[in-house]
Amino acid sequence: MPSAKLIKSLEKRGFLLEFPDYNADEEIIVEILRENNPRISLSLPLFLNEGINYKKIALKLSKGEKRELDKAVLISQKIYNKEKIDNNLKLIIKENKIKSKFSEQEFDNYYESFEESKASFGQKEQKIIERQSKLRLNLDLNKSLGVLFSPAKIRIMGKIFNHEKLTNTELKYYYRSISNINKAALNPALSDYLRIIEISKKFAERS
After folding, report:
1. Is the residue at 130 inside a domain?
2. C-beta atoms surrounding 75 within 10 Å
3. Tens of pLDDT, residues 7-34
4. CA-to-CA distance for 131 and 144, rounded, in angstroms?
5. 40 within some domain
6. Is 21 exposed, middle or buried (0-12, 13-18, 19+ CB in 10 A)?
7. I want to staple 149 with a disulfide (CB 3.0 to 4.6 A). Which of 115, 142, 153, 173 is the partner?
8. Cα–Cα–Cα angle for 37, 93, 65, rounded to 5 degrees
9. Tally of structural domains, the chain
């Protein structure tokens, strides 16, 4: 198994390794608790609000691991209540008679980690949305270009857009066959005229 440091370095260079994923959050929770690492245990509130099967998890844990689970459940409920996040931990705590003690400092550590993770996840989601929006814009642009221009003209304009040098033949072709179309498309009067045509077409269809 490659080290986390190596995996992170490879990912920075764009080389992604694929590993088997967990089938359920219960498996992730068990794995986190078995690590017996206080820093990793701070991630538990990210998984405890997904309708977990507490009994199924507890059966796979040692006594010490179960104590950590119980503490994490109680801390998570307090975090969810504070953040007004729907969860079923109150019922789980009552049914399983979960009792544990934790300090204010422990709660603060869990809560701070939870907030940081939530913010980081939100930023990643925003980046995904931005990439998807950009992709949709590119698809719309390519569709519109395909209506007005031939593939050869689109290729030449793509080179200009990406600041690539044109050959003499491409440059002559641009001024002969592309430039005039571009100037016409950029004419505000033409845009207004076409907009009126599209609007008036709806009335013509009703006549």
Report:
1. no
2. 23
3. 777 677 666 666 655 567 888 899 999 9
4. 20
5. yes
6. exposed
7. 153
8. 25
9. 2
Q: Is the pLDDT of residue 153 over 70?
A: yes
* Burial degree of 78 (CB within 10 A; 0-12, 13-18, 19+): middle
Are 186 and 179 contacting, i.e. CB atoms less than 8 angstroms apart?
A: no
Q: Are residues 97 and 17 in the same domain?
A: yes
The one-letter amino acid at 175: Y
pLDDT tens profile 108-133 = 999 999 998 887 766 666 666 666 66
- Classify residue 140: in a domain, yes or no: no
- Say which residues have a Cβ less than 8 Å from residue 42's Cβ, sequence separation at least 6: 109, 110, 113, 114
Rounded distance between C-alpha atoms, residue 125 and residue 144, angstroms: 29
Distance CA 146, CA 140 (A): 10
Would the pTM count as exceeding 0.85?
Answer: no
User: How many beta carbons lie within 10 A of that of residue 127, not counting itself?
Assistant: 10
